[in-house]
Structure formats: C-alpha cells, structure tokens
Amino acid sequence: MVTDLDKTQRFAEDFGLKTVRKAGSRLYMRTDGGDAYSYVAEQGDERRFIGLGFTVESEADLEEAVREHGGTPIVELDGPGGGRATTLTSPEGLKFELIYGIVEDQPKAPQPHLRLNAPGERSRFAAPQSERPAGPATLFRLGHVGLYAKDFAANAEWLQNVMGMKLSDALYAQSPDHAVVGFFRLDHGAEWVDHHTIFIGAMGMTGLHHLSFEVQDFEAQFRTHRYLQDKGWDPNWGVGRHPLGSHVFDVWFDPDRFRFETFSDTDLLNDEHETGLHAIKEQDMDCWSSDPPDRYFAP
Ligand SMILES: [Fe+2]
To answer: 5-105+137-297: which CATH architecture?
Structure first.
C-alpha cells in the first residue's frame, strides 16, 4: 500500500518496471522477463507491505496448501494473466500468495554480453563497445525479497516447513544456535537456483526490507544508478557487491521509502550446499567498500 500511487508509478517506471494495468486504486507492473506482473501497488492512507506471491507447479500444490497449511479457499485472480491462488499467512501476518495457471508474457531477449578487453585477455578488436540504451533499466525478474521480522526462529521454521525453502546462509549475533539473519533459497533438488529468494533480518519489526530485480550485468546497474540520480530519486546503498550471494547490488528508495534494488551476477546453489553459519560482527556487507550498512537496515 502506497500513499501516492501516481508518484510510485513514476519512480517504478524510472527504475525499469512497465505498467500493465492501472485501474481505480490499483497498479500492476511487470519486468521485461516474461512475468504477467511482479509488482502490485494500491493507493492507501499509509505505507504498508501486504505480502508477496510465488507461482507453484500444479493445482495440487494449491490444494495441499489449503489442506495442510491453512491456505484460504482457492480463488480466481482478476489481475493480468488470471490464474488461481490460495493465500498463506506467515507467523507475523504477511500474506504469501501461491498462484497456479497465470498466463505469462513473452520474455524480452537479454542484451548481448559485454565483450571486455582485460589485461592478458583481449577479445574485442577494431570494434567499439556495444551500445546500450540510456534510460530505465531492463529488468528480467523479481529475484528476491528482503523482509524484516521480529522472531527469526519462527519465520525460519515456517519458510522451511511450510514454504519448503532451504537456508543457504545464516548470521548469528550471540551464539551460533541463535541466528538473526537468514538467506533462504528455493528447493529444486539438483537444479541450480539463486543463493536466496527470501532474506529475513530480525530487527524488531515486521515488513518489507527490499525488493530486488535482476538486470543484465553491473554495467546495467551503473547506468541505472546514474539515470535514477539524474531523475532526482533518493539512493540508499550501492553500487556494491555482497559477500553472501556474491551479487552486485544497488538500492534506491521509492517515494514511500520502500527499497528497490537491482542485482546481477548472483551465486547459484543446489541441494549439495550445506548451510553456512557466520558471526554477524565478522561479516562484511559490501566487498567494494567499508560503508557502514546502518542506512541499509534502518526502517
Ligand atoms: Fe537484495
């Protein structure tokens, strides 16, 4: 829920999202990666995060969520692409919508990889660097969502036992058996998946920390950074590279101070990965600087 839907739309379009439908108080936006939509905003009196959605592989998954995990009765969705959904509620009241049968869009082809001339490795001869369009980023998908939580253990258990996720890395403050931050990935067995799809940080509140959208590479991120700067939007943190997950990040505030992040070059893991456990006080947040991450975590 946002306090000025038109202003949110202007920010999100500058960031790279495309408007699919805007009707009444509701705005649906998509990436260029083939999703029917991956961001929904609704005009309200206050800024508030309601929840997030996942597509599932079968109608049976929806039925199982209703039968075994307290999902709401299955409904037909009236958003772009339709589909059917049930909604689960997390331990702290966030909505996790599970969706089956949504009709997706045609994905836009990725841009050509940059051919880089580096010391000892020359690959681009008598040719200028390829042209990239200026302007908003080309976003390919919503890759992960960061959440604030009050109770790390309750949320971690729910994500693993109800949502079927795996804990890739965890950070602890006092003792290794009391994690306070976790990076959770999807469980697709031997298939390679992103290092994390959900990030949870126990910081005394419940809600959205950030939304993160994949772009082509870090040149695309630097271009987006400069473009958003020219447009007068408010930067939060980046461009930098996280040690856990390895991805390059760049974080911006939307008009309600929700964080929107671009990322590229994420680590991929599969079921051979064992959870990494790290002391939070020894864990850097950015490989490229010693910036204190306070402004990244402040509400
Ligand atoms: Fe992120």
So the answer is: Roll (3.10)
